[in-house]
Every structure is written in C-alpha cells, then in structure tokens.
Amino acid sequence: MRVNITVNGRPYEADDVWEGESLLYVLRERMGLPGSKNACEQGECGSCTVRLDGVPVCACLVAAGQAEGREVVTVEGLADHARQRSTHTTGAVRPGEPGAGRTGEPEVRPAEPEVIHSGEPGTGHPGEPEPSRPGQVAPLAPVQQAFIDAGAVQCGFCTPGLLVAADELLERTPDPSDADIREALSGNLCRCTGYEKILDAVRLAAARTGKAV
Length: 213
What we know:
This protein has 213 residues and is of the alpha/beta class. The chain is 31% helix and 11% strand. The protein is built from six helices and six strands, in the order E-E-H-E-E-E-H-E-H-H-H-H. It is globular.
C-alpha cells in the first residue's frame, strides 16, 4: 500500500508498504531517519518516541497505515519544530496591528512543498537540516542544548525519545513541576544516567524557555 505522511513539516510518500510495517520501520528504513531508535519493539522503553499529530507515541506500536495523512515530528525535526513554535508565539500579528493584512485583501499562502518519494534520488530526507555554511553550526532546540549542558547524554540510545517527550512537555507545560517531568518521562527508560541529569536538563530547558518569552 501507499502511505502519505507529513514528517517534520515535509510531505512524504512511501510505496509498497506492508500492512504489518510499523511507523518506526518506515521512518528508519524507508525514509532514512534513524534518530528514533529500535530497541524493545514493545512500547516499553520509549527510545522510538515521536509525535503523531502532536501526541507522543511509541513509533514501534503504530502501524504505518495509521499514520496516513497525519503529521509526525521526529528528533531530526525537533529544532525546526521548536523554532516554528517560538516564531508563532512571539511573532503573531493581531488584526489591526502593524503588519496585519487589510480586510478584503486576498490571503497569501505559501507554495505547496514538493512531495518526497521513497528511494527517490537527489532529494534530502524529511527533517534534514539545510546545509550550513562554513563556520556555522545548526541551532538546536532549547531542550537539546539543555541536555548537552546538563550532561544528560551518555550512550545516547535513549536520548532521542527523551528529547521528543521532554519537548512536548515544555510545549504543553512551560513551567513544569518535578512531578510533571517525571510523569512525562515515565515511559522512557535510561540505563546510564540514573535520571537525575535528565531531570536537571528539563528543568534547565524550562528555565531558559521561560526567560526567552
């Protein structure tokens, strides 16, 4: 079957998808997005966490066909997602404010993005950052930078799922309590850090995000 999914803001079309394929398999093997990790395949570890229509899910438990026509955000698109969220929050223009369109003016819509086909040569992967210029470093999402600064990354296998879950929490609850953080990350297992550094990272990201608003 054919599956059409918007991944990290870009439409993607995958052909010959078997009915039993998971969303995780399609993301990793068909779309070349290996950030979501394949570990337990039972929804127990959270390493494959992605956002499906905004909701964190274990991609290993979602059939690819269930994602038809829906939006997926993976760890590869986290920085862009956070940047768009920040722009939407700080740059919204209300009617009557400078920059707002006049009544009766035609609505200007962005051009439709090109659909990317599975295995198509000469196209980048969904969520793949634009090539940076020499000397430039692609910006990270606040929660990604906080994980680095707090030393919350060791082997890194669980980190993508933790980042996606933590980012969703901060979008939903900008000033979370420790109980909120523990609840949001309760489905994500880590064998290295002992979790305290992870909690520190989410607290740090929340504090930085709050100051930026």
